[in-house]
Amino acid sequence: EFSQNDKNIAAYALNTFKPEDNILKEVRDRAKKLEIPAIHVNDMDGKHLEVLIAMANAEKIIEVGTLAGYSAICIARGMQNKGILHTIEIEQKHYDAAKTSFKNANISHLIKQHLGSALNILKSLEQEGSFDAIFIDADKVSYPDYLTWAEKNIRIGGIIIADNTFAWGHINDSHFETLELEKQVKGIREFNQRIANNSNFKATILPTGEGLTVAVRIS
Ligand code: SAM
């Protein structure tokens, strides 16, 4: 079976589709210097995001978990210069780094940054009406809560995308090194179970290294 985990296949995909340009590389490098954790989406998942957003013609978008802005740049590239991406981050340092990233990438006009706890900010955004897309990539324990919000606030035809949905390889584990890891894996499992069984959505998990769950609302 071929997969992105196979080194030759991964190299082929990277060399052909060239997901990471100098702007994205600079985000990774600057984040490292700032001692921001290197938990950005991987390069190919960034490219998947760009294409999925363009496929959905999404213009009103939410991102939960900005970090240094890597994935938001990918999403913004999929927007093709129209619409608004609300991106939510709880850490001031990450928020500030992302502000620089958006300026460098010339996409600040497409982005509204929110600083605070995602669940509170999501609640306040409900008044803006339904959204075309949401990318979920913050604390895994809250994935089920983010899903509850998305089920209500994503329009028919809109999409839900979530990262790390193989739980860093721990998705099938029954014993965990820490209670925190166990809670995170349980959050991701509940998220996948619920979206897989929600008849208002068609959902799948793209077997990229990290696992990228993707769903489209059909009713
Ligand atoms: N999407 C980013 C990217 O690919 O470039 C990576 C996001 S990183 C995996 C998760 C981010 O979510 C961190 O910056 C973290 O501070 C933030 N975060 C964690 N819990 C949060 C919460 N409850 N509300 C908002 N942001 C949160």
Tell me about this structure.
By secondary structure, the chain is an alpha/beta fold. It has one domain (7-217): Rossmann fold. Helices cover 44% and strands 20% of the residues. It has 8 helices and 7 strands; from the N terminus they run H-H-H-E-H-E-H-E-H-E-H-E-H-E-E. Strands 3-2-1-4-5-7-6 form a 7-stranded mixed sheet, with helices on both faces. The protein is globular. The chain starts with 6 loop residues before the first helix and ends with a strand. S-adenosylmethionine binds at residues 39-41, 65, 67, 70-71, 88-91, 94, 117-118, 137-139. S-adenosylmethionine (SAM) is lined by residues 39-41, 65, 67, 70-71, 88-91, 94, 117-118, 137-139.
Short description:
This protein is of the alpha/beta class. The protein is built from 8 helices and 7 strands, in the order H-H-H-E-H-E-H-E-H-E-H-E-H-E-E.
Count of the domains: 1
- Which regions are unreliable across 5 or more consecutive residues at pLDDT < 50? none
Number of contiguous helices: 8
The name of the CATH superfamily reads Vaccinia Virus protein VP39
Strand fraction equals: 15-25%
Rounded to an integer in angstroms, the radius of gyration calculated over CA atoms is: 17 Å
Gap from first CA to last CA:
34 Å
Order of helices and strands: HHHEHEHEHEHEHEE
Helical residue percent band: 40-55%
Widest beta sheet: strand line-up: 3-2-1-4-5-7-6
DSSP, total strands: 7
CATH structural class: Alpha Beta
CATH architecture: 3-Layer(aba) Sandwich
Mean pLDDT, nearest integer? 97
| Shape type | globular
SS content category: alpha/beta
CATH topology: Rossmann fold
Sheet having the most strands: 7 strands, mixed
Query: Are any ligands bound, and if so which?
Result: S-adenosylmethionine
